[in-house]
Every structure is written in structure tokens, then in C-alpha cells.
């Protein structure tokens, strides 16, 4: 599967500088250094899970942080196929 890094629109970056990686499994994808580091982020809200959401012909990979005091989510990138992660629900659960 192909994973393409999400770069927010306000960041100026040439397309050739954006990370595009081919991985063989969901486990390999979630162990990419800059994806895995989200589990140990300095976010005051603890890591909850990785999730996915259909986005056009791709799937977004998201990281979600949640506790009784708050909820945050961030898009990490785009995948060319369903990788069997929980569906992103925007903190409804």
C-alpha cells in the first residue's frame, strides 16, 4: 500500500519533499517513526487510537487523543486502500 504524508495547506513544501512510502502492512505503517511518535506525543490529552476515514478515492490515517477532559484529532496522511482500522467518528464515542 502507498502512504502519503499529510502536509497542511499553510506549510510551503514542494511535492517532491512530501513523504510517500510503500508499506506492506498496517503494522509496518503504524511503526513508521513519525507515525509511531504520535503515541508518545506531548499532547496533554492521552493517545486514544489510530483511525481511518474515507476521503475521495483514498483513506485518511488519523490519530486521536481522548480523555474525560478533551478530544483532539489530526490527519497524518493518506492511504490508497482500506487498512482495517476503526472508522473515524469525530469523537462521538
Please provide a brief summary of the model.
By secondary structure, the protein is mostly beta strands.
Q: Largest sheet at a glance?
A: 5 strands, antiparallel
Indicate the radius of gyration in whole angstroms: 13 Å
Tally of separate helices: 2
Structural class category: mainly beta
Q: Average pLDDT across residues?
A: 88
- The succession of helices and strands, N to C, reads EEHHEEE
Strand order of the largest sheet: 2-1-5-4-3
**Spans of 5+ residues with little confidence (pLDDT < 50)?**
none
Helix content: under 10%
The tally of strands reads 5
Proportion of residues in β-strands: 35-45%
Shape: globular
Distance, first to last CA: 29 Å
Q: Would you kindly provide a written description of the structure presented here, covering whatever features stand out?
A:
The chain is mainly beta. Helices cover 10% and strands 39% of the residues. The protein has a 5-stranded antiparallel β-sheet with strand order 2-1-5-4-3, with no helix packed on it. A hairpin with a 2-residue loop joins strand 3 (47-55) and strand 4. The longest helix is centred in the first third of the chain and has 5 residues, at 26-30.
Using brief descriptors, characterize the structure shown.
single chain; 93 residues; mainly beta; five-stranded antiparallel sheet; 5 strands; 10% helix; globular
Amino acid at each position: 500500500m502507498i502512504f502519503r504524508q499529510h502536509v497542511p495547506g499553510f506549510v510551503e513544501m514542494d511535492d517532491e519533499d512530501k513523504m510517500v512510502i510503500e508499506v506492506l502492512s498496517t503494522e509496518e505503517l503504524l511503526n513508521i517513526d513519525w507515525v509511531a511518535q504520535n503515541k508518545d506525543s506531548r499532547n496533554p490529552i492521552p493517545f486514544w487510537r489510530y483511525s481511518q476515514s474515507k476521503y475521495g478515492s483514498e483513506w485518511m490515517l488519523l490519530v486521536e487523543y481522548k480523555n474525560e477532559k478533551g478530544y483532539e484529532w489530526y490527519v497524518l496522511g493518506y492511504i490508497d486502500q482500506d487498512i482495517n482500522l476503526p472508522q473515524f467518528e469525530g469523537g462521538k464515542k
